[in-house]
User: Which sequence fits this backbone?
C-alpha cells in the first residue's frame, strides 16, 4: 500500500503565498507522474498542475505564472508553490501519484488540504 500525505494548507490573505507538500510512502518502486488538483465548493475537481518523473510540467492555463509544481524524487515528495493567491483559489487541494509498486501500478490520492484565500 501507498499513502500520500498533504500539508501546508491554511488561511492566507489575497496576494499572499502558500507552499503545499505531498509526501508518498509505502511500497514504492517508482513514481511516474505526480499532480495537484483542486475542488471548490459546488464545483468539479480540476487539474492544477502535473509533473512527470523526468521533471516535465503541465499547468492549467489559468494558473500559469502564479503556481509552480516541483518534486524531490529522493523524498517521494511533490510541492506546489502558490503565489499571488486570489479568493477564487479557495478550494481543497489534492495530490495524486502514479505509483509503480512491486506488484502493481496504481494512481493514489491524498486526503486533501484546505486552502482558503480571504481577507
Assistant:
Amino acid at each position: 500500500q501507498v499513502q500520500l500525505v498533504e500539508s501546508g494548507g491554511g488561511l492566507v490573505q489575497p496576494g499572499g503565498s502558500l507552499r503545499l507538500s505531498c509526501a508518498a510512502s509505502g511500497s514504492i518502486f517508482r513514481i511516474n507522474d505526480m499532480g495537484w488538483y483542486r475542488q471548490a465548493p459546488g464545483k468539479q475537481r480540476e487539474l492544477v498542475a502535473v509533473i512527470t518523473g523526468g521533471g516535465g510540467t503541465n499547468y492549467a492555463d489559468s494558473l500559469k505564472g502564479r503556481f509552480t509544481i516541483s518534486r524531490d524524487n529522493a523524498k517521494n515528495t511533490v510541492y506546489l508553490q502558490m503565489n499571488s493567491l486570489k479568493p477564487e483559489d479557495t478550494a481543497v487541494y489534492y495530490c495524486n501519484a502514479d505509483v509503480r509498486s512491486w506488484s502493481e501500478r496504481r494512481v493514489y490520492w491524498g486526503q486533501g488540504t484546505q486552502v482558503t484565500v480571504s481577507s
In short: The chain is about 0% helix and 60% strand. The longest strand covers residues 30-39.
